[in-house]
TrEMBL record:
SMART domains: Lactamase_B (SM00849). It is found in: Cell membrane. It is a multi-pass membrane protein. One of its GO terms (cellular component) is plasma membrane. Keywords: Cell membrane, Membrane, Transmembrane, Transmembrane helix. This is DNA internalization-related competence protein ComEC/Rec2. The chain crosses the membrane at residues 9-27, 33-52, 270-292, 299-316, 346-362, 368-386, 419-438, 444-465, 472-492, 512-533, 545-564. GO terms for biological process: establishment of competence for transformation. CDD domains: ComA-like_MBL-fold. Its main location: membrane. It comes from Telmatocola sphagniphila. Residues 583-758 form the Metallo-beta-lactamase domain.
Length: 834
């Protein structure tokens, strides 16, 4: 009789605990259970386990349910619950001037100024970010106790105030702003997951921040001092140009790297080399172990020191999920060495999972957490199956040992390169659906440059750690370490820039439905479980998920996701959406025949509005192609997003006014250069051109073929749309003599009017509204003096994208309906056809 096999979870008891804890977090996230309910449930489950133990009954189900309740309670307390004294209870999204006291609990990180860009009209200046633990707010001369963490933003650098200092400051405080358009990344939710309740902006840091008491010694202050030491060494040795990349790689200072440089690494699929992760900790561990061997420390003491220093390094670099995951796994391995016990990968993986979620349960919904743990899981259990180590043939080994050293080294190098590329391929393929879900892109160039960039970053890490350590001893080897660090970083950066220029290197895909992502990773995780425990009762489909089947599964899942219809529009409906982009303009027109148009795409905030606002919204609508982009005139805040839009979407036609290309401005020249490299030409339209697209009629009211003279605003494109007897007027920045020419033409009453020049009072005279008789006025800006005046002086409904967020207009036979995204308003603008 065969003995019963060992239960699959016998050597990994933390796996079901991690699963139960995670399940509780998910329940609380999407069902929003009260904190008291979770605590009551946990208490009852523990009582049930106690009773079951006394009756000699299984207690594991009771304990797992208790861990589920504890996971839900932990997430609720950290990410959902707002305490009575929390400052979030008295704030709104509108900034208010407050005087506050608190203690700096996170050190300053410097965000560099933006580089010169012809498409940016207001470059961002250098600023510093930190987190304040709030103690009190001043009201009518009295200090009222309040708590909560506040994210501080100050101009320039503020080096006098450090972690642990108690400060008093004056600035503008508000709740984090929620998304203005569907599909956007929820910045306010991310801050809440980090335990941050509010934001505070200070305009003159030197005058408005006063240190009340210097902080004493603390662990956070020690970490800050170590971080400052590293920053000073790198700034002194590396120089300002390469500092950002070296600080991001060695110290986790992601803000030190300009956003444009960061995007190069994202698009080429090698951003993981800059994320503090297992690679960094393994390299540092090897470096520390080498030094300890020179000191002749025994193996167990060395393991303890390595574990302690790696934990400190993970905390110095910010304690991000990937770093804490790697630190927990390394510390588990070191603990096994100390105890002389075997460490099982599944148990180690589960422990790291639990540790990271205990530190911050909100990280479960963070892309870094998901990508980090998934890559490690595939590396541990998938790669050995897909790319097994070949058996050693003794005869072949003997032959190779008799060959010249150069030939043997060449064979070794080839084998390692092949293994590196195969590993990169399998991990990259495994991450594709998740990367598409989070970043909406597929990077093929990462398969090409991934291994050499990892090799160069490894050299940079060794040289960087050597530089930081050697500087403590007087800098004997600082020269060679600095040379190796700068050389390896420069070469790696050149590879990234080269790959970023490859036309096939990066594809923006749009979103993959969450259902397809869940399906793919359910199969992948089930297969990894089956590999670990072959006797585990799982469907036979997981046993068939070999290399070829895995690729087929990926392709089928992605095909279903991309081919599944995501756009929802009625064939008799015209939909107009005023996208919230700050001071600028971007209006989507979805025609009943399925064609899509954009009227303007730009903002004073810069071309980043496409990445942050426009593209996410278009993808959320299922739009991957834009048939025509119409630019009203040659002001940056109306067209500077066009190059970024061309990178992400197929665009059929670019249309503008006759004078657009004549403006002698760097931004216009840059856009024309981009269009020329893509083989696209501008189509000019002018009064009195008209055309139809299905049931929608277009009429150009301004400008004429030539003139009028003056600034670009007076030649702004004024476009009238008519559908089912309803009229919609787009005005751009029309004003002065151009506006007078428009008002001289007869027009039917307008249902929805775009306020000229972002609601400027001078561009919105009374005669405009007497002429247009609008039922709704939309202002492409924050709340303005004009919109307030309209509310007070006239009974005209006025909405601004700055406060209302996305404004959607639906026109059909039954009438015109308008609704806002952020405030949730809905109005009937017109009933039936006129």
């Amino acid at each position: 009789m065969r003995p019963n096999p060992t239960p699959p979870l016998y050597y990994a008891p933390l796996v079901p605990v991690a699963a139960a804890f995670t399940l509780g977090i998910l329940f609380d996230r999407y069902l929003v259970v009260a904190l008291k309910s979770w605590l009551v449930m946990a208490t009852l489950m523990l009582l049930g386990a106690s009773l079951a133990s006394r009756r000699k009954q299984p207690i594991i189900p009771w304990l797992l349910l208790a861990f589920t309740a504890l996971g839900g309670a932990h997430h609720n307390q950290q990410c959902q619950y707002v305490a009575p004294g929390n400052v979030a209870r008295i704030l709104t999204e509108k900034p208010m001037l407050v005087r506050a006291r608190g203690m700096l609990c996170e050190d300053w990180t410097v965000r560099p100024k933006t580089r010169e860009n012809p498409l940016v009209s207001q470059p961002r200046t250098e600023s510093s970010l930190a987190v304040l633990e709030l103690h009190a707010l001043q009201k009518e001369g009295d200090w009222i106790p309040h708590d909560g963490k506040v994210r501080l933003t100050v101009p320039g650098r503020l080096e006098e105030i450090r972690v642990g200092d108690e400060v008093e400051l004056l600035g503008w405080m508000n709740l984090p702003v929620t998304p203005a358009n569907p599909g956007e990344w929820d910045y306010s939710r991310w801050l809440r997951d980090q335990g941050i309740s509010a934001e505070m902006h200070i305009r003159k840091a030197q005058d408005l921040i006063t240190r009340l008491n210097p902080g004493g010694f603390s662990f956070d202050r020690l970490l800050a001092r170590i971080r400052h030491y590293g920053q000073e060494v790198l700034q002194h040795r590396i120089g300002e140009n390469e500092y950002g990349l070296s600080a991001a790689l060695l110290l986790g200072q992601n803000n030190a790297l300009p956003a444009a440089d960061w995007d190069h690494y994202v698009r080429t699929g090698v951003i993981h080399v800059l994320a503090i992760s297992g690679q960094h900790l393994v390299i540092l561990g090897i470096f520390i172990r080498f030094l300890l061997r020179l000191a002749r420390l025994d193996y167990r003491r060395a393991a303890l020191i390595v574990a302690l220093l790696l934990f400190i390094y993970a905390m110095v670099t910010g304690g991000r999920p990937s770093a804490m995951r790697a630190a927990a796994m390394v510390m588990m391995g070191c603990l096994g060495i100390l105890l002389g016990k075997r460490v099982f990968p599944a148990n180690t993986f589960a422990l790291a999972w639990i540790v990271v979620l205990i530190l911050n349960p909100g990280d479960l919904f963070n892309s870094g957490f998901q990508l980090s743990f998934l890559a490690v899981a595939v590396l541990i259990w998938g790669i050995p199956y897909w790319s097994p180590t070949p058996a050693i043939d003794p005869l072949q080994q003997l032959i190779e040992e008799s060959e010249p050293r150069l030939l043997r080294f060449s064979r070794f190098l080839f084998r390692e390169m092949r293994l590196a590329y195969k590993t990169t391929l399998y991990i990259s393929v495994s991450l594709i659906p998740l990367i598409i879900y989070w970043q909406n892109l597929i990077s093929l160039s990462g398969l090409l440059i991934g291994p050499p960039v990892i090799l160069l970053s490894t050299i940079a890490l060794l040289a960087g750690f050597g530089l930081l350590f050697d500087n403590l001893l007087g800098g004997l080897f600082s020269g060679i370490c600095t040379f190796l660090l700068k050389w390896s970083l420069a070469l790696a950066n050149d590879l990234v820039l080269f790959a970023d220029k490859l036309t096939w290197g990066c594809w923006y895909t749009g979103p993959l439905p969450i259902g397809c992502v869940i399906l793919f990773y359910t199969l992948l995780v089930g297969w990894l479980i089956w590999l670990q425990w072959r006797n585990f009762p799982l469907p036979r489909i997981f046993a068939q998920l070999k290399s070829g089947h895995f690729l087929k599964t990926l392709l089928v899942t992605m095909a279903i996701g991309f081919l599944w219809p995501q756009r929802d529009f009625e064939k008799d409906e015209l939909r107009i959406e005023f996208i919230s982009v700050g001071h600028g303009g971007c209006t989507l027109v979805e025609l009943p025949d399925g064609r899509t148009l954009l009227y303007d795409t730009g903002s004073l905030a810069g071309p980043d509005i496409v990445q942050r606002h426009v593209a996410p919204f278009l993808w959320s609508r299922g739009i991957r192609r834009i048939d025509e982009v119409i630019l009203s005139h040659a002001d940056l805040d109306h067209f500077n997003g066009l190059p970024a839009l061309l990178d992400r979407f197929a665009i059929g036609q670019i249309t503008t006014t006759p004078s657009f290309a004549d403006k002698n401005a760097p931004g216009v020249k840059e856009v024309l250069r981009v269009l020329e490299t893509r083989g696209m030409n501008l189509r000019a339209i002018h009064r009195p051109m008209t055309w139809k697209s299905g049931d929608v009629s277009f009429q150009v009211l301004h400008p004429p073929a030539e003139g009028p003279p003056g600034i670009e605003n007076v030649r702004s494109l004024v476009l009238l749309l008519e559908h089912q007897g309803h009229h919609f007027l787009f005005t751009g920045d029309i004003e002065k003599v151009g506006l007078d020419q428009v008002l001289s033409q007869p027009i039917s009453p307008i249902d929805v009017l775009m306020s000229p020049h972002h609601g400027s009072v001078t561009a919105n005279p009374t005669k405009l509204f007497d002429w247009a008789k609008p039922k709704l006025v939309v202002v492409n800006n924050s709340e303005s003096g004009f919109s307030s005046k309209m509310k007070n002086d006239r009974e005209i409904l006025t909405w601004s994208t700055g406060t209302a967020g996305l404004i959607t207009i639906r026109s059909h036979r039954s009438g015109v309906v308008a609704e806002t995204f952020r405030t949730g308003e809905r109005r009937v603008i017109a009933s039936g056809s006129p």
